[in-house]
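Title: Prediction job returns without error message
Component: structure pipeline
Severity: low
Priority: P3
Assignee: unassigned

Description:
Job completed but the reporter wants confirmation the result is attached to the right record. Sequence as submitted:
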Amino acid sequence: MESLYQRLIGFLRSTETVHLLLAPDDRQRVAKLLGGEDESLHLEPLLCNDIWMRDAGPISVVDEQGQVLFLDGNFNGWGGRFPHELDALLPLLLARRWRKRRQRLAICLEGGAIEVNGAGLGLTTTPVLTHPNRANPSRTAIEAELQRWLGVKRLIWLPHGLSMDHTDGHIDNLVRFVDTKRMVCSIGDSDHPDTAALAENRSVLGEALGPDFELTDLPTPPVQSGSGQWLPASHANFYITPGLVLMPAFGHNTDEQAAAVLKELFPQHRVVQLDCRPALAHGGGLHCMIQPLHGRGDLEIER
């Protein structure tokens, strides 16, 4: 993981300011590993349970007055699957540390469970937000809360996540916006266990969106652990930063195929492949590890 962190943070700090949460005792070692702190990298001593800041960290939105508001999604360790007592406090503690306002949502919402285009359209998956382990209210109530705080006027529910995804099927492994009218959609070939489910997702999405939107297929790599267990590998778990698209790679022939798709869709960006097999062994990818602040890094959300 150290090599992945070094490369990832090196790319990120070349384009935006990075705040890295770490155990207080690790500060000196990590600073040396990453080449020291400066205006592009701030080491933030704060104990956490895990590395998945997209899900546990605050979701930044901009209110009508142009002020940043931190949304607290009531993180519960993906339905109590993993320890989360420290991660659940991150929105509150970071809001206090950085003097931001915080709003606790009336639903359980991980950052990886929602994808928005910044223009009123949102995407999610039924297996996550309606799973009993999230203890969420009705779909109507969920949609109302997303409209109120994320500006989502229309929410499309996809029926499937990746079957091996311990999050129950986050949208950031499935469909991602390129801009307000274009998106990439994960598809599988005959070697992938979720080929039929991904095809159904694409069909549902295409029918719901209509001709005004453009869907581009993105291959999904069939990756297994050393013991033969399927892993939730996805090239859709990329992260957009100014001038760069950081794409998860897995040492599979789909790496180059997916990179070619993203290069065509992001002609003004450099597409960089990062070997994410170390992170995948823990259940996630690049997008899962990063939570943008102040609307930077992904499509900006205005409320």
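Comment from assignee: result matches the submitted record. Residues 295-303 have pLDDT under 50 and may be disordered.
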